[in-house]
Amino acid sequence: MNLFWVSIFYTIKEEKFIMKLKKIASLMLAGVMAISMLAGCSNGNGGNDGENVVVPTGVVASVISKLDEDTTDRVTFTADAKMEDALEAYAKSLGDWATNSSSINATADTFKKLAGLQDANMTLSFSDLEDSETYVAIDTLGDSKAGYSEEAAAAEIAAAMDKLLATGNWYYEDYNDGKDYYTFEHTGKVAVVKVENVNGQSNYIYAFTVTRTPTKVSK
After folding, report:
1. Kindly report the CA angle at 129 between 123 and 135, in degrees rounded to 5?
2. By C-alpha distance, which of 95, 85, 88, 203 is closest to 143?
3. pTM, full prediction
4. Residue 116: what pLDDT?
C-alpha cells in the first residue's frame, strides 16, 4: 500500500516538473519572438526617419498589359527581378528625392551600375550592325501624381513608354546596307517600385530597357 502511494506521489511530481519545463520553454519562445519583432522594426523603414519607404509591387504585369499594340508587336517585354532589386536599392538611396524626375535623371548612372546596364542611344550604327544595343530609360510619375492607385499608375507608365518608344530611331524591322541584309529582334525588361513617403502618399519610380539584337541574313 505504501509503495502504491509513493508511486503516485512521484508520478504527480514528475508531471508538475514536465509542466514547469513546458511553461519555461513557452516563455523562452515568446521572448525570442518578441526580440525578433523588435529587430525587424529597428531594421525596417518605419517612416520616422524622414526617408521614403520603398515597397516592391506587382504592377509590372499591369504595365505590360496596358502597352499599346504597336509597342508590343515590336518589342517583347517581361518583368525582371534583378532590375527591380536594383531599382528598389536606387530609390532607397535617393530618399525623399525618389519622386523627383530631375534628381532621378541626374543620377541615373547609379541605377544602371546597380542593374548592370549600359546605356545606348539606340540610333543605328552602320559600323556596329552585328552588336546588340540596349536602350535604358528611368523616370517617375512625379509628385503631381502622388497617391495614384496601381491601376492608374500602370496606365500612366504604359502611356509614357508608348510615347517614348514611338519616337526616335531605336526600332528597326530590317536593314540592307547594300551588301548584307539584317533583321532585328527587340526584347525589353520592365521594373516598377512603389515609393511611400512619410506623409503617407505613394508614388512610383519605373525603369525599362529595350535590347535590339541584329541577325545578318546572307544573300
Report:
1. 40
2. 203
3. 0.71
4. 92
